[in-house]
Amino acid sequence: MFKQKTTEQIKAASRQTDSGSHAFYNNPKYRAIIYQALLIFGVGYFFYAIVSNTLANLESLGIKSGFGFLSNAAGYDVLMTLIPFESTDTYMRVFIVGFLNTILVSFLGIILATILGFIIGIMYFSKNWLIKKVSVFYVETFRNIPLLLQIFFWYSAVLATLPGPRDSLSIGKAVFLNVRGLFIPGFTGQGGSILVYIAVALAIACIFVLRSWAKKRQDTTGQQFPVFNASVALLVGIPFIAALVMGFPFSIDLPVFKGFGFSGGIAVIPELMALTIALSVYTGAFIAEAVRAGIQAVPHGQTEAARSIGLREKRIMSLIVVPQAMRVIVPLLNSEYQSLVKNSTLAAAIAYPDLFNVFIGTALNQTGQAIETIFMAIVVYFAVNMVISFIMNRFNSNIELVGR
Amino acid sequence: MANIFKSDPTEFKPAPDQPAPTSSVGFVAWLRGSLFSSITNSVVTVLIALGLFSVIPDIINWMFISADWSGTSQEACVSDGACWVFVRSWSQQFFYGSYPTDQIWRVNLSLVALFAVIVSSFTLPTSNRLKISIPLFLVLPFACIVLLNGSLVGLEPVSTDLWGGFSLNILMAAAAIIVAFPFSFLWALGRRSDMPLARSICVVFIEFFRGVPVLALFFMGSVMLPLFFAEGTNIDKLVRVWIVLIFFMSGYMAEVFRGGFQAVPSGQYEAADSIGLNFWQKTLLVILPQVIKVSMPNILATFVMLFKNTVFLLIIGIPEVLQLLLTALANSNWLGGHAVEGYVFVGFIFWVSCFSMSLLSKNIEKKLDTSHRN
User: Fold this and answer.
1) Hey, which residues 80-139 in chain B have their CB within 8 Å of chain A?
2) Nearest 5 degrees, angle CA B325-CA A136-CA A154?
3) pTM
4) CA A207/CA B53 separation, integer angstroms
């Protein structure tokens, strides 16, 4: 940038020296102003035309623009809601229900895709020929088949062929899988359960303190502390003790087969299952590629140097290779997570009630408020992606190479 | 004198190389090294092998051995394997949609033309390659539309709601990326511009089309776009989708080009300035060819993404291949549960196309990689 500017300046200067007067339109400074004025005029006219046409069209269609419709009763039911919802509730509540469903599926998808992607990506570097080929096969298969096709496949070719509720697949008497979905036990806390939740929060706080202490100790003395094992112990131990003290203030709500279906427990509808599986399998393939690229970007000399100072193979991976690979992986993860959230809109194809489906789909159809509904949904997707981007960038700046 | 080098008894003669020990070469050594190098490794190998052996024979049996291949209706599917009769009897639908059977040569001709233009851009002599293939590329989508529609060239008119199938997926993706090319180039240039207003307009545009879910864009195309035009303007649904795809694509490609611009060394800009080229000469003759070259693998990757995304068109009711598959599955003559066959078939044709493109992109990347890394 800087260099280009200087050449421009040299040019301007040479023009000024070789003859006295110049037309103003040859001066790059004025030209830039003229171009931008033209551009602004063009874009402004474009938007003016669009807005005036839209207003005229809406008027002739008899649609009242504005967000007033949000307080009207929706009048339709939503298949799955995380908060109580009835068909007499407002469109605003539909919006929130859809938003929560989108967050749920995106969250599940991101977690599962990351786990899957890292496992498959690291499998590529196995010395075992079969494991390596499994990794390649997975990536090349699922990356190259359209996501929508995979969603349909899981939904109508796999999950729809499961047995009916009467002969569902089950693990013990707690987990049931059938054509109506997955039924798992739910936990409900009673009186003293609040103390257990506090214990969980306390354990997490302890882990953070422990981590910074262990890092400081390693920086000064070089001694390592088994942070991971200690963290797991804390996270399990403290809440367990709290629960023991309070006499296990939880009731487990098992799903029970009654009449025609299951009641009790947590029911995961097949739409959510199909969407989560397809999203995480598809995105997992891309994350595996990112992990592979990241690990390959670490020069082999790093591994050799680590061996030469006597580190064990496991330590080399966790202390030398992965931290350096993360610098390549995290920016790629960022964009994969964002595209996962955007891809979750494909829920519309199998009628999972995400924001897109209940709002741009049904609400738009019923009210005709195309601009408002699409605008609101788009803002949500932008906001979610900005939050993801913010978190990942914070994470990235933590692991970035510190320049000298 | 002549054979002094041959038979000097004092000359040092290294003994011939020993053959490598049999334990480190050959099939057995490979097995030992890569599959059974340790106990855990052996256990994993055996487990995976057992898993594969329990699945693969069943799959092969279902797909090939006990599958039904010939016949015209569902009655031909008597065995318990795959019913490929279903795919066969719907194959014309899957590839061409409802395009009239006696006019299908027009679709084929369009696909051949597309293929020929792509091949020509790789095989023409370098001296006039850009001069010929860029205009060819830009004319191609419009020529295909004229040919497929037919009313302008005196052929039997075929309205756009009859277009469909896998050929529509291919042509739609190709037409979108070709028209998006010049746009995205302009957006990328704008984003690098020194003019603050031009730059911010381009940034907003690019980020908008990259940030919005493509499905929302399609809905905007089908619900909002008609509102934007003056009353009475009726734009074909396929054209609206095409416009959406072009904008969507140019947002992504602009970022690809931006990377390409950054990869061109600044010495190239300075050299072009020093021989007195003006801005457009510099950009089009010196920088653009290098940008296209370095961003070719990314362009292909973006195209693969677009190509896979053409399936989303079914959500707004365009009869692309997956939509036709769903129609076929719901057909009352074929209610035998052929979902798996259908999805496997459509998945396979997409897989073949996308995988071959990613191989091509890897190949180009290797060719472009002139650095001497190891």
Assistant:
1) none
2) 30
3) 0.85
4) 45
Cα separation of B177 and B175, whole Å?
6
Quick one: which H or E segment has residue A181? strand A181-184
Minimal Cβ distance to A43: which of B201, B322, B351: B201
Rounded to the nearest angstrom, the minimum Cα separation between B342 and chain A is 9
Chain A contact for B34 (CB, 8 A cutoff):
yes
Cβ contacts of A178 within 8 Å, gap of 6 or more? A162, A163, A164, A165, A167, A168, A169
Q: What's the 3-state SS for B267-278?
A: HHHHHHHHCCCC
Partners of A141 on chain B (C-beta within 8 Å) are 351
State the nearest Cα–Cα gap between A52 and chain B, in angstroms.
8
Half-sphere exposure of B211 (CA within 13 A, CB side): 20
pLDDT in tens, B211-240: 899 888 988 888 888 888 777 777 888 888
Q: What is the DSSP string of A108-170?
A: HHHHHHHHHHHHHHHHTT-S-HHHHHHHHHHHHHHHSS-HHHHHHIIIIIIGGGSPPGGG-EE
* Size (chain B), residues: 374
Whether residues A128 and B198 touch (CB distance < 8 A) is answered with no
For chain A, list the domains and their CATH numbers: 93-185+254-353 (1.10.3720.10)
Q: Quote the ipTM score.
A: 0.86
Higher-scoring residue by pLDDT: B14, B233: B14
Dump pLDDT digits (tens) for A335-367: 999 999 999 999 988 889 999 888 888 888 888
**Which residues from chain A sit within 8 angstroms of residue B45, using beta carbons?**
128, 130
State how far the Cα of B318 lies from the Cα of B169, in Å rounded to an integer. Answer: 10
**Touching check for B354 and chain A: CB below 8 Å?**
yes
Q: How close A378 comes to chain B (CA, Å)?
A: 6
Beta strand A261-263 with A256-258: parallel, antiparallel or unpaired? antiparallel
